[in-house]
Amino acid sequence: MEKKRICIYCSSSNDLPEKYYIMAKELGIKLAKHNYDMVYGGTTVGMMGVIANNALENGSDVIGVIPERIASFGLKHPALAKVVVTKDMRERKATMEKYADVFVAAPGGFGTFEEIFEILVAKQLNYHKKPVIFFNFDNYYSNMLKMFDTVYENKFAKETMKTLYYIANSVDDIFEYIDNYKPVEYVMKY
Hints:
Layout: E1 5-9, H1 18-33, E2 37-40, H2 46-57, E3 62-67, H3 68-71, E4 82-86, H4 89-99, E5 102-105, H5 110-124, E6 132-135, H6 142-153, E7 166-168, H7 171-179
Parallel strand pairs: 1-2, 1-5, 2-3, 3-4, 5-6, 6-7
Helix pairs in contact: 1-2
């Protein structure tokens, strides 16, 4: 039986505080220990590279999906089970979605936000029923969650949309949620 794949969206920066790389190492190790494979952006840099390296070192297969432009910078990871080079970011996101069974947004920047929100909206519209997780490491997403509350309070979204995603506060919390996940179909009401 083929292992499930977790798509991890996260930072490609090498300039973060050390705590993020320590967490990334733990996430990569535990991804493998929980018997999952990984899909991610395909580079060697930042948290992306740390998670991929640790998943690989501990027995996971890792698929990298990288746009031509980023690959041209010499950032393509050389040790992956599979690398898919796409023409642009739109194709990259669609390819990552195709390969993934679970989506996790670890701390990241604008690209991470854009990727996970597209997946969240796709779930809202019932294009998939896969788990969507925001990893709120060290309260990274807490301000965003306050904005979500504003969205709900002002009726721009129904409170039932909270069932579309999960807020994990630790690496162990991510895997506990995934291991116990039961798909729910969101009923759209206008």
